[in-house]
Structures are given as C-alpha cells and as structure tokens.
Amino acid sequence: MTTAFLLFTFLWHLVKAIDDATANSSISDLCIQMPGMPGCALRTFCDTSPSSLAQPYCQPISLLGDICLNDMPRMASCQPYNESCSLNTTCQSLYPPVPQLPTSLKLAQNIYSICSAMTMDGCSTCQLTSASTYSDCNMLGVYAGMCKVMPGMTQCSEYVAMCSASLKGSSLCTSSASDAPPEMKMYFHTGIVEYVLFQGWVPRTTVQYGFTLLGCFILAIIYEGFLALHIVLDTYIGTTKDQNKSLQSFPTSASQSTNSSTPIQPARSKARFAWPWTQMVLRGLLRLINATLAYALMLIAMTYNVGLFFGVVLGLAVGSMATTGILKAIQHNSYVTARDEELCC
Predict the structure, then answer these.
(1) Which residues, at least 6 apart from 69, have a Cβ–Cβ distance to it below 8 Å?
(2) Which residues form the signal peptide (predicted)?
(3) Rounded CA separation 193/219 (Å)
(4) What distance in Å separates the CA atoms of residue 53 and residue 171, rounded to the nearest whole number?
C-alpha cells in the first residue's frame, strides 16, 4: 500500500508540475494575443458548457496542450507547458490534447479554399487571402459551420477526422434539429431540412415540410397559369393586328366604296389598337413574372430533395392539364374569327 501511495504521489507531482492555475493563466495570455486559435475556441466551448466536450478535453492542461503541443508551441506563454508536459507521456496520457484538431494554419487555408470556390455563411466573418496563415475570427467555429453543410468537400477532411476521433458528440460536429443547418447534397436524397429559396425558409418538422410541398405544388400551378395567360395575350394581339389590317383594306371614302351612300370607316379598328405600348408593357410584365417563377421552380428542384422535386413536376403537370382547355378554346375562337373574316372580306 505504501509503495502504491508513493508511486501515485510521484506521478501526481510529476503531472502537476504545471497546475490548473498556471495553465489557465497561460491560455488567457495566449488567447488575448491570438484569439482565433482553435484551442481558444475550445476553451470558449468549455467555459460556456463544461460538458460540451468529452473529458478530459475541457481540463485546463488539455486545453493548453491544444495550443502548445501542435499549434503554436513557440509562443512565450507556452513555456510552462513545454517544460512540464511536452515530453511528459504521463501528462499527455492524463490530459491529452484533442486528437486530429486542425492547426490555425490548416483552418485558414481550408476556409480560404472553401470561400474561393463558393460563398457560404462565415466567409464574411473570416477575411482571408491566399497568403493568410491566421485570422482573429473564430476559425474553428466558422470551419465547422461550413463543413456541417457540406461535409463531403475535400477541404473538410480534417473536420471529419476530428469529429470521428474525439468531438463526435460536441456541438462542433452535431446540431440539434432546431438549429441544424441544411446539408447541401448534390444528388437526389430524402429528408425534410432544406433551404428553400431563402435562408429563413427551412422546414424542420413534418408539418412544415408538408406545407412546403404544398407551396411548391401551388407555385408550379401558378406558373402554368401565367404561361397560359402569356399565350392568350399573344393570341389576342395577333388577332387584333389581323383585324386591323383587314379593316384598313376596306374603302375609306364614298368614291372608293362599292356603295357610295354608305362609306366604310375603320374608326373602330383604330380604337382597338390605339395603345401598342400598353400591350408591350403587359407582355414584358408577364415575361418577367414567368421568368421569375420558372427560375424559382428550377432552384427548388435543384435542392435534389425528392419530395420537393416531385412537388414541382406534379404541380406543372396539373397546371398544364388545367390550362389545356382554356388554350384550346382560345385557339378555336381565333381560328373561327380568322375564317369569318376571310369569308366576309
């Protein structure tokens, strides 16, 4: 018993060559100088919620190791750790740094690479260039947020390794259903959490997803309705022009008329086609609405969400069926009008 106690005391003093107070003081000094280091982000997580990381990763010595062992070992405030723990296997086994934690340099490079390829939330938070090796922003938090959305990006390999090795249950690697960002999958998939056109339109429950499907379905029907309206307007304009030309070919004076007592005047035709700019503006407005709806439906389909995709295409099918009768009637009336004019003139 005495031998075991002496051995325990020896190991305890060996490990505690740097105590918690010294470790906390060193971390505070380091994070004042370079607050964007991943170790500083982890300390913030631990201060906010001590259970946010698995033990012993929230211990002060472990947090100091996140900075001084792998990230910034040459900083002056790392001297106590370097002297007591860097080469001390017992210290590192009891208070290990987070495995696979990316360094500040790697975070800066990955964030810049992601933001160069596409615009994502966080790109404006960390202003980085190709030569950047560090930023004072919360680089670990920004990087984790990006990789939650698109974990399949090549730049997220360090994130996947970190979460698999040590932080799988932390908020850096997982999110609750109420605040989880939609994952951007560039292939057909199922699920309910998706960005639908706007950042604030994110269904998170089955009911919300059901209303979203209904909205997409109705939007597709409305698009088909406006498309039919555009065709109706074009048909009306064409018919009006034909009637105008036909009436203009009639005699306009008593000497030209076959019946000199009843001259024919095209006044009615001029009244019907007196405002061509009105028709042009109306056509342009309908085209604007049609294009807006068409691209909105395309963007919804490009979420690759199976439910949303079929909500769009089924809405287009139903809308097309609903407007077919109207278009056929318009075309028939146009044909009858043209035929009557030919017979009469």
Answers:
(1) 81, 85, 86, 92, 97
(2) 1-17
(3) 20
(4) 9
Residue count (the chain): 345
Q: What is the pLDDT of residues 126-154, one digit of tens each?
A: 989 989 899 999 999 999 999 988 888 89
* Other CB atoms within 10 A of residue 94 CB: 18
- Whole-model pTM: value is 0.64
Three-state SS letters, 291-312: HHHHHHHHHHHCCCEHHHHHHH
Which of 309, 303, 246 shows the shortest CA–CA distance to 272? 246
The alpha helices in 157-275, defined as continuous H runs, are 157-162, 206-248, 267-272
One-character DSSP codes across 98-162: PTTPPPHHHHHHHHHHHHHHS--TTTTTS---TT----SS-HHHHHHHHHHH-TTSGGGHHHHHH
DSSP, collapsed to helix, strand or coil, labels residue 55 as coil
Residue 254 pLDDT greater than 50, yes or no = no
| Residues with Cβ within 8 Å of residue 188, at least 6 apart in sequence | 304, 305, 306, 309
pLDDT tens digits, one per residue of 59-81 = 999 999 999 998 999 999 999 99
AA identity, residue 280 = M
Return the number of other C-beta atoms located less than 10 Å from residue 326's C-beta: 14
Per the listing, tokens 């498309």 go with: 227
